[in-house]
Amino acid sequence: MISGAISSDQSIWKRIGQFIYLILAISGILLDRITPLRVLLWTLIAANILFLWFFKDWVTLEAVILFFVAMFVIRYAMLFGSFGQKGLAPWLIHRFGEKQGYAYYENLTAFLFFYRGTSFNLLVEYTADSLLIPLWLEPWATGLALVGMIGASIINLWATAIVGIDVYYYKDMFLGRAVGKFEVRGPFRYFSNPMYGIGQCNAYGAALYYGSVWGLLGTLLNQVLMYVFYFRFEKPHIKRLFAGSDASLPANL
Asked: Residue 247: what pLDDT?
């Protein structure tokens, strides 16, 4: 009886640990293992957090916009330049081998995930109240924003838990082969790509909550480019890997 209770407690704590790891991982903070690349990544993230904690008053609107644009351009230049025949992924594999090449790619992606998220958070904060909302509509807008942020965050976490962190960090596309089984369950029963679609409502919600026009426009452009990437690279990749298994493909893929 006592042994069963201990096992149950351990299982609960394990699930809590997995949940925390998942939240951090989709934000760009990877804590799964200690390597020189991970330590460098953690150092850069810590430097960003400490700078904003102690010196945020030094940051200007112009600097925030420049930071956001730079992270946006670098992120999508890397993403679109990764998976072609002469892309970054084949070059890294040829130069360093699959294991080390992906280690570089994964950590670089994590860096951009974190810094892009930071740049967006700063953008909506520094451009707050640029969206003119009638006073009587503000409570409704705030409620809608909170629903979007909470609901979309849950969907993103759920979808990521299903596909796995490796797929979230494009390991399957980097290697050109499946790294797990694609299952049609959870949000994938209703959306072919919940993270690129309804999952973006967390960013729209944050922009609406702050009343940031620039945040809304930035999110819209981000979503458009995500779908361009999806139809240009990701969808053909998924069909190639899972075309032989109807059960593994969403009906609307």
From this structure: 38
